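Fold this complex.
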Amino acid sequence: KQEVTQIPAALSVPEGENLVLNCSFTDSAIYNLQWFRQDPGKGLTSLLLIQSSQREQTSGRLNASLDKSSGRSTLYIAASQPGDSATYLCAVRREYGNKLVFGAGTILRVKS
Amino acid sequence: DTEVTQTPKHLVMGMTNKKSLKCEQHMGHRAMYWYKQKAKKPPELMFVYSYEKLSINESVPSRFSPECPNSSLLNLHLHALQPEDSALYLCASSQRPNTQYFGPGTRLTVL
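Structure:
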């Protein structure tokens, strides 16, 4: 059974810091991995999707890496801003089927 | 347009009521999903429709009844719910097996 773990559970940083969020998964037979952002009481916004054959994806200040063999992904946020404050979730899709398995999330607070 | 819409935004219902949640997308995606999310927890998959056919039911109680009338619409019919069913219900769609796009959710309260 696939299990996804995110560390740290919560993070508070001053504005301008670069930061790294970690995601690990137990079964390396994944099709892709997706990072989401969720604001309180809202839906999920897709940030980046990495296919199993890829090593990283970048979008603006965000960079996500994937090491499938070791079961790890990181989300790097450069020059953090208060508007980045949210819960960040990673989710993996199995090689077969449509199901996403989510981690519990990292709650990020960026202080101005 | 990468938008999934959900109605209503909020719903309060009694345990004897029947209500429905609606989800719509116009991205041509052929996979649609219902998730349930309790406070401070990640979303939990409930149902997946693929090409308008139910492909995954995660052992959801029968008081939740999904329906996919066409490729753009997904409904979730609710009947005889319990207070513990109060949660944020999220709809998503994808052009399988790629990025899932989520709607804003319906906040359901069962009294």
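The first strand of chain A starts at residue 4 and ends at 7.
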